Structures are given as C-alpha cells and as structure tokens.
C-alpha cells in the first residue's frame, strides 16, 4: 500500500530523476567538456545516488510506528492517526496568513504588514483582548524596524512602495 | 609567554576595557538572537561604530565581546524557539529545543552558557600554548584533505538516524547536497538549476532553508496542538527558569566539554572549516561514545547532546583565530571580517604582529578570555528571564516565532521570493516530519555541500583524477574515519536486531 512514507520516497525519486535529467543535459561551455571536473559531474553522481536511495526506501520493509516494548519510532505519526484531536484550521490558516504577509510586504511596507500579521495571527489563535494585542503588535513591529534599519543601518522599507522614503 | 600574558592583562584589565567587553557581550547577545544576524553580520555591523573608539586594543576587545555575545545569542534562539539563525548553532537545537519543550529551558540555557564558556576558555589556553605550531600544521591541509574533512562532517548524519532510518538520513543529506548546487559556485561561475528564476542565481540562502526546515514546522505544530503549547502553570514556569544543574549532570558533561574543547579547537584551526563542522562532528562523536541508554536520549533532550556542539563551536571559533593571528589568513567568515577591522586599525595580523605589536596580540587573546568570563557573568543572571519567553501565551508566541523566522530571511535581502521559498521549505518539512524523515541531515548536506564540491573539484583538477584519495595519507585516514562513522551505527543496528 502507498502510505505517506512511500509516497514521499516516490516524490524524492521523481525529484532525483528530474534533477538528474537537468544535470545530464546541462549545457556545458566548449572548454568545460575537456575538464576533469565539470559543472554537472557531482550533480549527476548525486542524482544517481538519490535515485538508488529513494528506490531502496520505496521497496524496503517499513519500521513499525510503535515497537512491542512501547518505543515510538514515528513521534509525529500521532497527528495523522488521530487528526480529530488537532486544530488543523489554525495551523493551515497561519501558514496562509504568512503567505499573504509575504506578498503584502512590498506593497504595504514592513510596519503595516508586520503589525497586521501579528494582530491577525493572534486573533486566529484565539486572542480577543484587542487592547493588548494591537499595541503590542505595533510596538514590536516598530522596535524591530528601528533596531534593524536605524541602529544597524540594514535597509528595511517601512512604508508602502509608492511612499517616498 | 608569561611576559606577554602579563602585558595583555595589563592592557585589557582596565575599567574602560572591561566596560566595553561587557557592552559588546550585551549588544552581541541581543542582536545575535535575531535569526539571520549571525556573529559575522553582527561584527561587521559593529566595526564602523567600534572604530570611533580610536584605541586598537579597546576596539578589538569590544568586537571580541560582540563576537562571543552573538554566538550565545544564536544559541538562545535555537534552544527557545528552534530557530537556528546560523549554521554553527544548528546542532544546538537538536537537543536544546527538546529540553526547552520539556520545561527545562533554564537548564538548557545554563548548560549552553557553561559549555560555551568552557569551550572558549580552553580554546584560548590552547591558542596561547600551541598557536604557532598549529598554524604550520594547518597550512599542510590542501583541497584533498578539506574534501575528506567535509566527508567526515557529512558522515555525522549517521548520528541523526534513529532505528532503521540510516537510509532516510542519507537521502536527506543527498537532498541537501542537491539544493546546495543551485546557483553559482566559486568553482563554476555559470548558474545551475535555477529554472530561470533570477532570485536563485546566487543560490538558496542558508537562513531561508534553516528557518523553513525548523521554525515554520514548529510554529505549525504549536498552532495545531493545543496541549503541546498550553500555557504553563506557575510550577512549570518556575521549572522553565530553573538554572540548577545537579552533580550527576555536571559529571556527565565534564568529559564531553574537555573532549569537544580540544576537538573543536583543532577543527577550528583549519582555515575554512570552522564552527559548523566542529559542532556537527562534536555531536556525532559524543553520540557514538555514549552508552546505549544515553544514545537513545540524543535528539530528545540529552544534556550531552547539547553540551557537545555548544563547546565545540566556541572552541572552534577560538581556534579560527590561530591562522588569523599567526599567518594573517582568516580561518572563518567572522575572522575575515575581523581582518578588515585589523587593517582599518592599521595593524597587519601575521608572523610580524607578535614581534612588532605584542601588546595588541596579547590583549586580543586576553580580551577573548575576558569576553568569555563577562558573557557568563552577564548572561547567567539573565537566563531565568530569557527562558520565561516560553511562558508567553500561544496566541502571541506562535505569530512572533513565525515573524522572527521570516524576518531573518527578509532582513538585508528585501526580497519576498526568499519568504515564499521559506514557506515552501516549511511545508516540505512538515510533510517530511509526518513521514518521519530526519531533517538535520538535509541542513548538514546543504551547509557542507558547496565546500564539498569546491574542494572535491580542486582536488580532482590538481590530481587529474581521484588518485589523491590513496596518494595522500591524511586524506585516506579522514575518508576511512568517515566510513567508520557511517558503518558503526549500521552494524550496531544489525547486531541488535540479530540478538533479538
């Protein structure tokens, strides 16, 4: 049966094969063809090793999740065995919020997008004391920006891209 | 040498210099906690400020304090939120973070501080005694030996493979090595495997991968698992901030500290290897030396597993000063930045420094010693307060963990592609964790990948083939040691299965 363990091995087999294809057909410059080490020498070796390794993982017998003596071999397997015990919505929502934060950084600027991310992240995880959450989030954003941009002089765009700074 | 030490003491032991050592440690610790700002970046950022002081000894004392502080700061974020912002502290998270999750954050930070102090201090003593002799030994290392040393570092992955997982660990190492080939390398200047994406031309950023692999899954699992991230009771809060290490624990870590101080220092002396390999190898060696019961604890909150990389990376950081001070060759990224500071101060590190400016040479060494002491004195009282960060309610802690991880990749780059990559690696890491693939080998493969390929390429070009493997005794010895590292756990598993 194709469980997650084998599905990942299959995906890694596909990745190694794709990587090997790109490495094998890598466009060598004329002089590189005569070198003892070419830009695709190690990648081809890695791809072959990756294909062999993932194939062996795919066909070898699986280690039991829990041994007879109670030793747990797969500590994170519990999440998938009893998914109803976990709050998947919050986890996935947080990751989606992080994607939105990433995409908004350039357009909305560091200060606004970071404050919004921290406030919305807190609300998503159940915080309802807005009088704490909002000031803390804004203060943290401003402090990090001030430390990085003003003290350490590492440029961090504070405002939206269209605002001159 | 005694005269030199006294001269160094006289120069370094003034109120002004002690003040700047303490200030440097404090600034380094605070900034070093931010993922993405490792010791090299922090020291580089502080150089323009420190040059304003004028006095070369005081400037170097301040920078040494910043350096040690930043190393400890990096360990703190590794232990508390599983966010190793620098390659040298990745191994610290393997057992430091599980300890923190078990409510022993205070103890973990204390062990980290004591191990760092001991590794740094023993390293300074070794530096004083053996620097010139070791510098001559270090330059005997050619690319063939470096390649073999990288192989030895990669063999450390066997330490992260649980029962029946050696192949998975090898597969993850290969994946890390493949990711390391993305972009331009110093050996081949044309970009590879970028799929036409401009932002990948310079390769994948270490912080992006490290945060994606460790911090993002941690934030995700904390968010879905309310029990795991429940607010600590007052008793648990007290335990979190408890610093006490009992006699049994002290006895357990003492030999680890001595062994890893020496091993880490020797690895640090080789230019270009540094603290990262020292910490991975330190972890692997101690795991192999541990008893079967102790070995089971590695990766689940072992105090030996925490003390080993922390000692080794600090000793190696000190060791990297050997080629800098005696030959003028920077042994690591941070010492390369410090070389810039020396030049800005009109000092030329190298064989002449000890003859021409003995007060500077010895005050740098003494300041490293002071930096270690000040760091311990300054940070131990702060540990209970730092550890209490974990008692923050989850609705605040989780978004902040994710924010700091993302800020680490964004700062200095101002590039949203880095963050999308980070989140992509995060999702990949979550899936790999569900399927029980160990993640540390992936990062080890990535960190060592570039150096591995560069040195293998140079060695093969020099020898016009692979004859260097058996023609150079040191290379062969290191490769055979790496083979032993890989084969011993496999044989041990096999024998255990046979006995059953």
Walk me through what this model shows:
- The complex is a heterodimer of chains A (165) and B (500).
- With 165 residues, chain A is mainly α.
- In chain A, 62% of the residues lie in helices and 0% in strands.
- Chain A contains 6 helices and no strands.
- Chain A has helices at 4-24, 41-59, 78-81, 88-108, 110-124, 130-151.
- In chain A, helix 4 packs antiparallel against helix 5 (110-124).
- The longest helix of chain A has 22 residues, at 130-151.
- Chain A is flat.
- The model of chain A has no long low-confidence stretch (mean pLDDT 86).
- With 500 residues, chain B is an all-alpha fold.
- Chain B has helices spanning 2-12, 15-32, 39-51, 56-81, 90-101, 105-138, 143-154, 166-180, 206-224, 234-240, 247-269, 274-289, 292-297, 303-319, 321-327, 333-344, 351-356, 358-379, 383-387, 394-410, 416-434, 440-463, 468-471, 473-499.
- In chain B, helix 4 crosses helix 5 (90-101) and helix 6 runs parallel beside helix 15.
- The mean pLDDT of chain B is 82.
- The chains are: A mainly alpha (165), B mainly alpha (500).
- At the A-B interface, helix 1, helix 2, helix 4, helix 5 and helix 6 of A face helix 8, helix 9, helix 20, helix 21 and helix 22 of B.
At a glance:
Chain A is mainly α and 165 residues long.
Query: Number of helical segments of chain A?
Result: 6
Helicity level of chain A, as a percent range? 55-70%
Largest sheet of chain B: none
Instruction: Please give the alpha-carbon distance between the first and last residues of chain A.
Output: 59 Å
């Amino acid at each position: 049966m194709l469980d997650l363990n084998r599905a990942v091995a299959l995906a890694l087999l596909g990745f190694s094969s794709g990587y090997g294809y790109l490495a094998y057909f890598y466009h060598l410059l004329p002089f590189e063809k005569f070198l003892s080490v070419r830009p695709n020498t190690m990648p081809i070796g890695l791809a072959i090793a990756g294909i062999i390794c993932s194939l062996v993982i795919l066909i070898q017998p699986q280690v039991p999740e829990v041994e007879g003596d109670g030793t747990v071999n797969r500590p994170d397997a519990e999440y998938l065995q009893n998914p109803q015990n976990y709050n998947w919505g919050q986890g996935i929502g947080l990751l989606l919020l992080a994607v939105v934060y990433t995409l908004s950084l350039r357009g909305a600027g560091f200060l606004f997008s970071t404050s919004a991310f921290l406030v919305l992240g807190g609300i998503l995880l159940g915080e309802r004391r807005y009088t704490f959450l909002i000031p803390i989030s804004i203060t943290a954003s401003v402090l990090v920006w001030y430390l990085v941009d003003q003290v350490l002089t590492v440029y961090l765009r504070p405002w939206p891209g269209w605002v001159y700074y | 040498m005694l005269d030199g030490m006294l001269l160094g003491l006289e120069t370094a032991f003034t109120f002004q210099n002690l003040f700047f050592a303490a200030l440097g440690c404090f600034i380094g610790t605070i900034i070093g906690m931010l993922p993405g700002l490792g010791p090299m970046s922090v020291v580089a950022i502080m150089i323009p400020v420190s040059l304003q002081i004028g006095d070369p000894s005081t400037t170097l004392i301040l920078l040494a304090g910043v350096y040690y502080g930043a190393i400890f700061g990096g360990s703190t974020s590794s232990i508390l939120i599983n966010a190793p912002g620098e390659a040298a502290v990745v191994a610290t998270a393997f057992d430091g973070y599980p300890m923190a999750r078990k409510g022993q954050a205070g103890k973990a930070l204390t062990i980290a501080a004591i191990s760092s102090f001991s590794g740094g201090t023993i390293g300074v003593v070794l530096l004083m005694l053996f620097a010139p002799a070791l510098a001559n030994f270090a330059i005997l290392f050619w690319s063939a030996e470096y390649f073999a040393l990288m192989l030895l570092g990669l063999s450390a992955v066997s330490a992260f493979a649980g029962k029946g997982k050696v192949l998975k660990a090898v597969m993850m190492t290969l994946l890390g090595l493949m990711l390391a080939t993305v972009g331009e390398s110093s050996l081949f200047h044309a970009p590879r495997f970028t799929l036409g994406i401009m932002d990948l031309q310079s390769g994948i950023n270490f912080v992006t991968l490290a945060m994606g692999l460790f911090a993002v899954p941690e934030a995700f699992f904390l968010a879905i698992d309310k029990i795991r991230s429940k607010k600590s009771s007052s008793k648990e809060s007290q335990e979190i901030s408890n610093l006490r290490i009992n006699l049994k624990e002290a006895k357990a870590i003492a030999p680890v500290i001595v062994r890893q101080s020496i091993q880490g220092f020797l690895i640090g002396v080789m230019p270009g290897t540094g603290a990262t390999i020292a910490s991975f190898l330190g972890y692997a060696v101690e795991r192999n030396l541990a008893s079967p019961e102790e070995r089971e604890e590695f990766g689940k909150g072992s105090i030996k597993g925490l003390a080993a990389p922390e000692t080794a990376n600090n000793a190696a950081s000190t060791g990297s000063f050997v080629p800098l001070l005696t030959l003028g060759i920077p042994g690591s990224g941070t010492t390369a930045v410090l070389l810039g500071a020396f030049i800005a101060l009109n000092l030329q590190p190298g064989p002449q420094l000890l003859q021409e400016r003995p007060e500077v040479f010895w005050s740098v060494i003494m300041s490293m010693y002071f930096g270690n002491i000040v760091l311990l004195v300054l940070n131990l009282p702060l540990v209970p307060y730092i550890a209490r960060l974990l008692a923050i309610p989850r609705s605040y802690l989780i978004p902040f963990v994710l924010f700091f991880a993302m800020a680490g990749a964004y700062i200095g780059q101002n590039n949203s592609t880095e963050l999308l990559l980070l989140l992509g690696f995060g999702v990949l890491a979550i899936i790999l964790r569900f399927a029980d693939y160990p993640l540390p080998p992936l990062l080890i493969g990535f960190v060592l990948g570039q150096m591995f390929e560069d040195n293998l390429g140079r060695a093969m070009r020099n020898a016009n083939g692979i004859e260097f493997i058996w023609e150079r005794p040191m290379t062969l010895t290191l490769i055979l040691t790496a083979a032993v590292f890989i084969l011993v756990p496999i044989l041990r598993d096999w024998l255990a299965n046979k006995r059953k």
